[in-house]
Design brief:
Distance between the termini: 45 Å
GO molecular function: DNA binding; DNA-binding transcription factor activity
Protein name: Metalloregulator ArsR/SmtB family transcription factor
Domain HTH arsR-type: 8-103
Strand order of the largest sheet: 1-3-2
Pfam families: HTH_5
Strand content: 5-15%
Number of helices: 6
Keywords: DNA-binding, Transcription, Transcription regulation
Radius of gyration: 16 Å
Oligomer: single chain
Shape: globular
Largest sheet: 3 strands, antiparallel
């Protein structure tokens, strides 16, 4: 694979750092994991799962939507959120493989 020119590599490094900073928050990771598992959830469903107030959750959702980590669709008065396809879904698959494998017996012991 040919090396990127240094200026392009710096651009990409900044882009990746922004992407990782948007995901690198315990509450946002929990939201992303729930969306990866469920496919699509409403704000109320997410608030119950991550134990955040709706205003706090809405701030996290806005940040993740702005960064392209999640998508939103409206159905009447309800908004449904889903994990974006691409880098964020690929990243979550890797994180799940290494940190939350289905056969993880540590969770049963806690």
């Amino acid at each position: 694979m040919p090396a990127l020119p240094i200026a392009r590599m710096e651009e990409k490094a900044a882009e990746v750092a922004d992407f990782l900073m948007a995901a690198a928050n315990r509450n946002r990771l929990m939201v992303l994991c729930h969306l990866a598992e469920a496919g699509e959830l409403t704000v109320n469903e997410l608030a119950g799962l991550v134990r955040l107030s709706q205003p706090a959750l809405s701030q996290h959702l806005a940040r993740m939507a702005e960064e392209g980590l999640i998508t939103a669709r409206a159905d009447g008065r309800r908004r449904f959120y889903a994990l974006s396809q691409g880098p964020v879904s690929d990243l979550l698959a890797v994180l799940q493989k290494h940190f939350c494998p289905p056969d993880d017996t540590r969770a049963a012991a806690e």
